[in-house]
Amino acid sequence: MVKIVHMADTHLGYREGKGTINKWAIPNYSKPYEQTIYDAFKKIMEDISKIKDLDFLVHCGDMFHIPHLNNPHPPPEPARRVLKNVLDTFFENTDNQVPIIYVEGNHGVFRGYEYTPFESHFTKKEYSNLYYFKERDLLNAIKSNNPLNLEFLDKKVRFYLFPYFEFNSFETYKSAYDSWIGNQRPPEDDDFINIAVAHGSKIDGTLHKKVRSDDFGYDYIALGHEHILKEETKNRYYAGCLLPLNFKEIYQNQGYIVVNIDNNTKNLEIEKIYSDSLLKRPFEVIEIKISPQDSLIDLTNSINEVLNEYISDGGFDPITSARLKLNFIGEMTFEKNWQINDLMSKIRRDTFSKADKFNILQLIWHISDISELIEDEIGPGIVQDYILDKPEEEFKIFVEEKLRDDKSQFNIDKLTKFGMEAIKKALKIMDKEKEV
Length: 436
Fold this sequence. Notes:
The chain is α/β, with parallel strands linked by helices. The chain has helices at about 30-50, 75-95, 115-120, 135-145, 170-180, 210, 295-305, 335-350, 370-375, 380-385, 390-400, 410-435; strands at about 1-5, 55-60, 100-105, 130-135, 150, 155-160, 195-200, 220-225, 230-235, 235-240, 255-260, 270-275, 285-290, 320-330, 360-370.
């Protein structure tokens, strides 16, 4: 039996920014939610290092949150220190007998450079059982038309590596990747356990169809990039993040996976370990229903009723302070929209200025106008009837008015005919769209 832990998307150094109080978890060192992720990562890695008979730890990318495409800065110093400390502890606890295998994701990559944040803080020589693969390794494999894999002969396990690569960005990339990927097919009648390790997704076209459809017959496919712990097929899984990073992710499962693979039958035993229970802070989306008739006092009272739940005798606590998103739902006017934004900006400033009272880390809001949904239910025929009692006559009058000052010679009857045909065609298209 071969035992593997599959994890991904730890995003060390992630700092929520929008609508956040300027408080430090450790003065001048790390921000509160950033520190929460560090603490969870250290706890989980220590737990993993104590798993009996563990053979491999696989990490499918995005160890760090930055750098990424829109942020060229290196990871925060605390993120790199935490990773180094965790690696030291892991290899010490496992007597340096459990390899860590890592492929770079789209986060944590210095685009256009030959090194990664791994190489900016320590070297491969320090950790003989750490194996990491970056985009440059993949490009070199493609150029030389060689596979990108890693074999452990003593355990008869082979890993096929797929670092993040936007091969669909250009036709030349796609063509080269398609030509190369056949090298990643395991040999026929092979007695090795063959495992694919990839960072990518079908959603954004960064996971090749040969991998996601398992044309190559891998015994297990370990995936990163999508932030939810889930089963894609019986042998293809996403590990997800360790903790939710944003409000969308609070409705998803996070954690890591322990995989047991039988050496002879290649059968899998999958154990999902959920780590989101480590999150001690409230992380909530709260709905506030409003109407155009609500006064400013009504609106203020509704918001304060929500925020009063987060008044604490101890004031702000970096570990338990809440991340809140208020969803304002109702029929909106421009005035009401501006009123909510102005009021929320003021309330947030006031709340964050009272750190001795409110245990709130983040306060953001979203305004949903249900009148847009109501308008969508109006059929095109009703629109036509409402606008035009006598469509052709009224459209002809419209054309005549528009051309009154035009000295060119236009045939108004023909323009009217063409215009009405265009309107009828547009209304038919609208009708079909409503049926979908």
